[in-house]
Task: structure prediction
Amino acid sequence: MNREIQVPISKEDAKSLRAGDYVFLTGTIYTARDAAHKRMQEALDAGEPLPLDLEQNVIYYMGPSPAREGRPIGSAGPTTASRMDKYTPRLLDLGLGAMVGKGKRTQAVKDAIVRNGCVYFAAVGGAGALLSQRILSSEVIAYEDLGTEAIRRLEVKDFPVVVVIDSEGHDLYETAIKEYAR
Result:
């Protein structure tokens, strides 16, 4: 099923999605990769506030290449999500609504997705140049010293993703393998 979703993502929208659904995101999402996740964890451990409000927001695991002239961002393909898995359950418990990346997630992340009624989306790896065409603006909002790993606020329109893990814990990577084996 194809769905158009406004982001930040509402709990109702997140819970209505099923593994395998094609979704087009429009609105505000944030980027954060390994180094930014580590800094956010350190801030939380120190009792400091995070540089963004997690509530129902979407984090895209991505570090862009430099923007070409006239474009807000360069190639913007997804990063392997499992590198953020040690940080993710805590962020989901604090209100994060969804994540976009590529690849499988740990059982701890799946459990946190179900516990919090969230969703994990995948973007197509290797299609960063095409994905960047759906990004209307990009602004560094935190950890500028991290370069491409700084946290950015992106405005996106019809950004294409696939639901990989839905709020009930169904995992497209697992079901697709079983389906293919038949």
